[in-house]
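hiii so um. not sure if this is the right channel but i have a protein structure encoded as tokens and i wanna go backwards to a sequence. like what aa goes where. can anyone help
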């Protein structure tokens, strides 16, 4: 069985959105390993001294138990264009370390910086993020994510984004798009003009 992964933002010694990561971690464990001991990420993750200043990705790799915790320096990618790619068979309902199909789609992005995956005529996710779309008044995220991210869950919970069905034909209703994931929220996400979605 493929390993699972949680990627947690660690900035200046603080782990972000830990309760939402814990929730997804718990659901994956419960679904795949019915006999298990409760694991608290807050107790297992120890931030190294050298990672207490700056921005890092804390990667927790696990199956029934945590197998590895590592901290990697993080830099944001510049994304100003997206390519729509259709795949009606892709499934990424859990955050696996093995992402071959996603990588294959990403490699088809051509001269664009990232991709937007379309499944069953609905926009789902980019290569590593949940998209959000601004209609001039509020932000929306598709109700058809491949993987419901922790940042997405937090922003929905806080009422900062709403959820609806979004198809490629709906893009004309929006002015711009953003990409959110564990490492980037509204303050850090790339913002892409909708006419840069091809």
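sure thing!! here u go:
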């Amino acid at each position: 069985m493929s390993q699972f992964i949680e990627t947690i933002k660690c900035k200046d010694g603080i782990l972000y959105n830990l309760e939402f990561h814990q929730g997804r971690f718990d659901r994956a464990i419960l679904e795949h390993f019915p006999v298990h001991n409760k694991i608290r990420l807050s107790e297992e993750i120890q931030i190294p001294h050298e990672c207490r200043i700056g921005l890092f990705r804390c990667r927790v790799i696990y199956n029934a138990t945590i197998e590895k915790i590592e901290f990697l320096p993080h830099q944001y990618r510049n994304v100003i264009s997206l390519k729509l790619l259709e795949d009606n068979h892709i499934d990424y309902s859990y955050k696996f370390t093995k992402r071959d199909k996603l990588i294959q789609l990403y490699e088809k992005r051509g001269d664009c910086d990232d991709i937007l995956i379309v499944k069953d005529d609905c926009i789902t996710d980019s290569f590593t993020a949940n998209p959000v779309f601004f209609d001039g008044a509020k932000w929306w995220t598709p109700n058809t994510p491949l993987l419901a991210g922790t940042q997405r869950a937090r922003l929905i919970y806080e009422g900062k984004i709403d959820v609806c069905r979004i198809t490629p034909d709906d893009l004309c209703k929006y002015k711009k798009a953003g990409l959110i994931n564990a490492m980037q929220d509204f303050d850090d996400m790339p913002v892409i003009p909708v006419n840069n979605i091809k």
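oh and The helical segments are 18-32, 41-44, 100-106, 150-157.
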